[in-house]
């Protein structure tokens, strides 16, 4: 399954996420890492020093997604700033288009 706007592909299917009871806000491109993390957490009674490898890989995946979104937003802002600059540089027409329309 391909998700628009991201370079990462969805690995976990909807059925797997439903079966693992992954909450809707967490069903992103890192859900395939969240499923084993949650299973480990339940097995280890949510002890913070357990499941460190699973948690690290999940948090790294989430971090990469956030950074990717930030870079895309930065590019969008830069493009908008360029367009604004171009509009400011264009001279105003002496005769407006509405005056010459017949």
TrEMBL record:
Keywords: Disulfide bond, Electron transport, Membrane, Mitochondrion, Mitochondrion inner membrane, Respiratory chain, Transport. It comes from the Eukaryota. Residues 80-102 are annotated as: Disordered. Transmembrane segments: none annotated. It is a peripheral membrane protein. The keyword Membrane applies. Its main location: mitochondrion. The keyword Transport applies. It is found in: Mitochondrion inner membrane; Mitochondrion intermembrane space. GO terms for cellular component: mitochondrial inner membrane; mitochondrial intermembrane space. Belongs to the complex I NDUFB7 subunit family. This is NADH dehydrogenase [ubiquinone] 1 beta subcomplex subunit 7. It comes from Carpinus fangiana.
